[in-house]
Amino acid sequence: MNCTLIKKSCVGLLAIILSTSCADLTENLTGQPTVDKFFQTLTDFNSYITGAYTPLILLYGTDMPYAASAGAEDVNTPVIRWKGFEQVNINTVGNPDEVTDELWNSYYTSISACNTLIKIIGENTKLSPDELSPIGGEAHFLRAFNYFQLVRWFGEVPLLTEDNQDNAAKEPQASVARIYEQIVSDLKNAELTLPLSQDDPSRPSRWAAKALLAKVYLTMAGFPLNETSCYALARDKANEVISEKVYTLEKVYSQLWLWSNRKINSEFIFALYASSDNATGSYIHQAVRPTDHGENGWADWTSDKRFLETFPVGDGSRLNGTFYTRMRDGASWEDTNVAQPYVGKYRDAGPKSGGYSGIATANKADGFFCMLRYADVLLIYAEAANQAEGSPSKAAYDAINEVRERAGLTKLSGLTPAQFDKAVLDERNWELAFECNRWFDLCRRHILKETLEAYYPEAKIDDHNYLLPKPSDQMTIMTGIVQNPGYN
């Protein structure tokens, strides 16, 4: 599939009703919401779309995406049953289903809600298309987001539509190329139908669709599709976001991660927001703290001291916003029970979390998880422009240097294309640490082995490591899927 030949297609998916528990894709569809049963007013549609966020907020409020990303250098986990993810050795260490089940079920549950809404909007006769178009765009955006996660974690998965959802148990998995075709189609729909801005920052705008599409194109340009024509598409789509100057980098990096700024900073493009007042409360603020030295955490996942050692100091603003190295009682991270540097980005999850430097006081707090931000778009542009044009342009240098300057690092200049490419990948590693990006960057650039063998010299990394095993229970329920190579 060539990126320049991708055609937009209108696809509506019939869904199982949304549940905040694990998705059973074989659930009986009798009693699903229909126009005559539920969708009568615009409020009904808006109410339903909010449910598509619930499984995502619940997922990112747990450890699972971060444990699954632990194969990258930025994350370390002391949890023995998750060590296989960190050591790129899932086959022999721990039980991967604990993690992969949560990923699989959460994304498909959200997809189900989007599919139902897209179908009902198509059947609606009471409200005008202008009223429903933004909500339909939101459903297409979220569906694309979910499939983008699934295809990167698992490769070929079932692509469930309104024509085959009720046959989910027997539906064969779609090719990676076909899944990306659907993702691009959905995001092109969202580009045309989402509003330019949202009163509620938790809802995606047209710019979020453009930013996500730029990231999708960047990924398609790499492994396994290797559609290098997509580099130019990623560059151009990222530039659409940059040139409009809708977003800017926050002046102080650490301010991005304060609960009080979570919805008013100038950098977040798409984020998920948990709430301690309902079922979407997050416990990540507990997971990233040590148990001792007045922190009252669990230390389920941390950074890796080897990553901290390679992290550029600059003026200290990014380093101090990324890591938490001094505990509440003044102790250093080296004196804690895990003796690894801790993640600063998720400590402040609202009053119940104890704030950025206070003691954790609740298992479920508010929390927020940034999925797309402006720094990411700048670095997408820099990488894609260099790859598409064969050398770094002034605009590419401007993009990466804007990110580096905020971190107090010197501007780059005079690099060869290869040197510039490495500089961008390094910058992504530092700038986007612990945001579930590094693992996917290593995979799309097909550099797992050479990057991680220094960390885990005994790991026998090959192409099977680029995907996770599909959950064993889904292998039983969904007879049309095939386990990824290299897994039992």
What can you see in these coordinates?
With 488 residues, this protein is mainly alpha-helical. It has a domain at 11-194 and 466-477: Serine Threonine Protein Phosphatase 5, Tetratricopeptide repeat. The protein contains 18 helices and four strands. It has helices spanning 42-50, 54-60, 64-68, 83-86, 97-123, 129-154, 176-193, 206-220, 230-243, 284-287, 305-310, 317-322, 374-389, 394-406, 417-431, 438-444, 448-452, 472-477, and strands spanning 268-273, 323-324, 342-343, 368-373. The strands form two sheets. Strands 1-4 form a two-stranded antiparallel ribbon. A two-stranded antiparallel sheet has the order 2-3. α7 (176-193) packs antiparallel against α8, α8 (206-220) packs across α13 (374-389) and α13 (374-389) runs antiparallel to α14 (394-406). It starts with 41 loop residues before the first helix and ends in an 11-residue tail after the last helix. 53% of the residues are buried.
Provide a concise account of the structure shown.
The protein has 18 helices and 4 strands.
Instruction: Name the helix and strand elements from N-terminus to C-terminus, one letter apiece.
Output: HHHHHHHHHEHHHEEEHHHHHH
Task: State mean pLDDT (0 to 100 scale).
Answer: 90
Structural class of the helices, strands and pairings? mainly alpha
Measure the end-to-end span. Answer: 30 Å
What Rg is obtained from the alpha carbons, in whole angstroms? 22 Å
- What is the class of one domain in the CATH system? Mainly Alpha
CATH fold call of one domain: Serine Threonine Protein Phosphatase 5, Tetratricopeptide repeat
Main sheet summary = 2 strands, antiparallel
Pfam families: SusD-like_3 (PF14322), SusD_RagB (PF07980)
Family: Belongs to the SusD family.
Main location: membrane
Keywords: Cell outer membrane, Membrane, Signal
